Amino acid sequence: MFTGNRHRLYSQMEEESMLVLFSGEAPRKLSDQFYDFFPDRNFYYLTGLGEMGCAFVYIKSSVATREILYTPAADPVMEMIAGKPPAPEALRAVSGIEGIEPINCLDRMLGSAVNMYRVKTVYLDMGTFDRLDALTPGQSLAAKLRNKTAGVEIKNIAGKLEAMRAIKTESEIAHMQKAIDITAGAFTAMMQAVRPGMNEHELDALFRYKVRMGGGEEGFQVVATGSNALTLHYMRNNTDIGEDDLVLADCGAIWNHYYSDITRTFPASGRFTPRQKVLYNIVLEAQKKAIACVRPGVTVAEISAAARDSIAKDCVALGLIDDESEVGKRWVGGIGHFLGLECHDTTGYFLTKDLPLEAGMVITIEPGLYVAEENIGIRIEDDVLVEPNGCRVLSEALPKTAEAVEALMQGR
């Protein structure tokens, strides 16, 4: 899988060029503690490795063609505290990269590569959108090379990698399906456990527990009740659940670094009120129409329009808006996003709303309806694979009609 990813990228690189990618470092949480580490997604996509402090170099030259993995040098003190890192044999088995050298050799190799391998172009991952935080390792290296290496062109490889990552292989789809199945099981547990008087954090904790018991990792948890559901990415999850509240849960598990992302809205009491069911069915109908549009050649804008027009017409009929042009008052946010190694995957690639979909893409479809004066927010989200002749809903096993939701909540 990872060797294939690399060779597809290599074919797009110029001759006499070099690729350099970094796995990244975990941000510091406390003076002696770090946050959980997640490898740079493009680094993982090409190597399959989730180790911190590594670099990968590929040289495409008439002089030589080389793949080199640079790893942290042995540290007996850290090994005693955190355990030994994977042995070189294990890294080779996962990545298919034979050459492994200490990371402290990287600078020396970069300094000599231009002359030794006649490198004229260096490819770095410098992102596809403006960042608000510190420079990435690729951006920092780009600045250093521009100052020290004359006559070498620096090119951003991020766009090519995002285009590749947008089309999933069968192996990637299998990983995502496993993450989705784990998520669906955790949703079932939440929907059957919820009771008025509970706190949102209890459902949050139950989701995390079921994901871990299923062998996955928790990616994110939005558990929003009442007016909290009006906030798209509400993350506090600490409010008591009222008798007539709807619970909007937007959660995703991770399996082998691949994400799922599902949203269901369900009644804390186990049964929708008549008003809640009317509003819920507006969203469900909009989602059905959007999913029916998904096929190769259709654009994100066209899918969004199908859902938006459906919600607009129903909102006018219900008196929630006076004119269809006012639908933005009731539906805030987009129709969805790419899904893969990140929840909002290949972000820069997806910003092109007129991008035609291709077979192998996995996207989310998540229309919503928000009625602030009634403290109601409703969203339904599924993960959808674009297939040659249409699409397949990967999360279809988790019920979403109002009647099926009620039945599931009652253990049926």
Order of helices and strands: HEEEHEEHHEHEHEHHHEEEEHHHEEEEEH
Give the percentage of residues in beta strands. 15-25%
Low-confidence runs (pLDDT<50, min 5 residues)? none
Number of helix segments?
13
Number of domains: 2
Radius of gyration: 24 Å
According to DSSP, the number of beta strands is 17
- Work out the helicity level: 25-40%
Q: At the fourth CATH level, what is the homologous superfamily of the largest domain?
A: Creatinase/methionine aminopeptidase superfamily
Task: Give the CATH level 1 class of the largest domain.
Answer: Alpha Beta
Strands of the widest sheet, in order across it, are: 6-5-4-1-7-8
Describe the protein.
- By secondary structure, the chain is an alpha+beta fold.
- It has 2 domains: 2-165, Creatine Amidinohydrolase, Chain A, domain 1 (3-Layer(aba) Sandwich), CATH 3.40.350.10; 167-409, Creatinase/methionine aminopeptidase superfamily (Creatine Amidinohydrolase).
- The protein has 13 helices and 17 strands.
- The protein has helices at 2-10, 41-47, 76-82, 88-95, 106-116, 137-148, 158-166, 170-193, 200-213, 274-293, 300-318, 347-350, 402-409, and strands spanning 17-22, 28-30, 33-34, 55-60, 65-71, 99-102, 121-124, 153-156, 217-225, 246-255, 258-259, 262-267, 362-365, 368-371, 376-379, 382-387, 390-393.
- The model has no long low-confidence stretch (mean pLDDT 93).
